[in-house]
Each structure stands twice: as structure tokens, then as C-alpha cells.
Amino acid sequence: MTEGRQAKALERQADSLETIADELRFQNAALVEIAWRLHHLECGIDPHASEHTMSHRAFMTGLDDHDFERREREEDSNAREIAGGNR
Predict the structure, then answer these.
(1) Cβ(58)–Cβ(48) under 8 Å?
(2) Over 19-86, what HEC string results?
(3) Segment 29-64, tens digit of pLDDT
């Protein structure tokens, strides 16, 4: 395989892995949000619950919040590793 073709193949592979990582982040956020909502509904402490239902917008906002928090933790962890010389 020529260098150009190999570079393009590696670029496509990297793009595919980024797409998979984005999808996994979304699925992780969805799972965390579902677990969080179920826990709070079960305990009767969900301030956003209206007769144990939630709007699509509220659910998606929760997903975004969990994804944002997870990405912040990941960035903080990476920054600490770089500062500590682990990379």
C-alpha cells in the first residue's frame, strides 16, 4: 500500500473511531440520565418530575448535562496527567 493510500486509510479509521467515541459518550450520558431519573423518581425527590413523567426536552437537557460533566472530568484528568508528566 502506498503512503498516500495508507495515510487516507488511517484518517478514515481515526474518523470512524471518533464517531464511535461520540456515540459511546452519548449512550453513556443516556444511561447515567436514565439511572439518575429512576433513582430520583423512586425516592420521590425528582424536582423535574411531573406525575413521574418527563418531557423530551428535559431528558435531552439531562443528557447534555451528564455528557458535559463527564467531558469536564475527562479533560481535568488529561490535564493532570500532562502536568504530572505521564504522557
Answers:
(1) yes
(2) HHHHHHHHHHHHHHHHHHHHHHHHHCCCCCCECCECCHHHHHHHHHHHHHHHHHHHHHHHHHHHHHCC
(3) 888 878 887 877 777 765 555 555 667 787 778 778
Specify the pLDDT at position 35. Answer: 83
Burial of 33 (0-12, 13-18, 19+ CB in 10 A): buried
Cell 508528566 locates to 85
Q: Is the pLDDT of residue 81 over 80?
A: no
